Amino acid sequence: MTVTSPGAPTGRIRHTILEWLKDPPAHFPAGRRRDLAATGVTARAVAAKLGLPPRTVRAHLDFLARLGMLRTRRIRCRTHYRRDEIRIAEVARIFEKGW
User: Which domain of life is it from (predicted)?
Assistant: First the structure.
């Protein structure tokens, strides 16, 4: 199911990704004996849900990780992404204060 069109603004795509990663088990199929909330979600799983190429989604995920909003964890040959709630709360406070 495609939730965003290929021409969707990047901010909306990143916001959608962050929303889904709040509760990964509700949005993504569980891996083999893995707790998605603890290990995170692969770019391939996010790309399949968004209906976008994995390379595009990986760029969005890497951007969010560089900002510190996502944490990464390598499991075998794949990178798993999960939210960094502390960093997200810090960023939210900055915006609430008006910079």
Answer: Bacteria
